[in-house]
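Follow-up to my post from last week.
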Amino acid sequence: TQLLEQSPQFLSIQEGENLTVYCNSSSVFSSLQWYRQEPGEGPVLLVTVVTGGEVKKLKRLTFQFGDARKDSSLHITAAQPGDTGLYLCAANFGNEKLTFGTGTRLTIIP
Amino acid sequence: EPEVTQTPSHQVTQMGQEVILRCVPISNHLYFYWYRQILGQKVEFLVSFYNNEISEKSEIFDDQFSVERPDGSNFTLKIRSTKLEDSAMYFCASRRLTGTGANVLTFGAGSRLTVL
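User reply:
Got it. Predicted complex:
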């Protein structure tokens, strides 16, 4: 059974601070995606990473895929209240389904 | 921007009743999925569907569940006899085959099912 653990589970920080959330597995991913989910809505794709060591930037968000393809991180610079939400990593382990992580619920305090 | 649409947005049903959740995937997508999310828990894979048949299913997707693509646009999830523990948000998703080989899914807004 492939599991994706995200940490921290909850994070509450002040506006303007930086933060990093992590996604880890004991198994190698073939690809990994980060999603953001608002209450009562479906997950919305932020980024897909495929190559080990890959780094992608999306404005103030930086996504990194570990060299060993077993971990990923999301770093947010100068967090804003609009960044508040549930951040989910999701991975393919070489099969059809997408396995979701446990999620990090982020709250940015104005 | 193309989107996956789901109906109903919320359904309340009595235990033992049949429920059909409907989805209209993005028109040029070939792969279709159902996921569910029990309140406060993570998003769980139920089933994937390609070329008019199930390509993969999870342990959750037992004989009470079925999927169908009755016409060229709709993709449905049927729960034959609902149980209390079926209460969850059900998400439909679809994708096309991307060049990178990554399974990039577009999710609908979900259908909330409440079983009483």
